[in-house]
């Protein structure tokens, strides 16, 4: 049995939407987003149920909340508005798109307080009127072991707020620029980068500047991880949008979409499988909104009561 890891949470929050659709307010800066040619609400609901059942069967504790309203098309992505941290701390984040700000739910925070040891909730959402945004673990990919916060600069990721978060929560900020093959800025770090216990998936070629690219690759390797570079096509297939979690007996699992899984080479899958068991789930309807499995899961890094 592989050793458990602080990088891999044993519990997650998942939001199951009843009226899912790609969000028109995020289409301008999310180049991963695609329009739906029919109502995919039921398909998206079923995809979320599939993820929840797959994780629960593997031994991950899954807290499922339903969103029955029709005003928050991106509510399926809770990792953007809150994150949890060892030591009992929770962060709540300011959101770029106005129709995403109502995704923040007091009942989820209250559940965390009831089920886990929460010492402090730090709420940055009051910075939205100042046009300062930091969309959680979409904007930042956190190395919980080496205490590094990787963050792609964007409208949704203000470097000043990254610095502020890192000072309070004890991470070192590593902020950089990244673009797709058309030169369009990457909107969220977690669509191009995943940090696991032993591995790191990253679209290295998307990073702007040879020196910065080499520096980030070096930083990842210095933490002892095997670096798996992703091609632009693999990033577009959400291969970077994966999350390592912990199941039965502390088994480490890499949750990834079937779209992403199909894009990976046999060699890459062999490297991943040497580190953790790969769980591929079909979430194609959700991917129309420009995010995949990792975006759907808010990891819980808190001690249970």
Automatic annotation (TrEMBL):
Residue ranges for the region (Disordered) are: 15-35
Please give the coiled-coil regions recorded for this protein.
none
Polar residues composition-biased segments: 23-33
InterPro entries for this protein: Amdntrnsf_FN0238
The record's annotation in SUPFAM superfamilies points to: Pentein
This protein's name? Arginine deiminase-related protein
What is the superkingdom listed in this entry's lineage?
Answer: Bacteria
**The organism of origin for this protein:** Microbacterium bandirmense
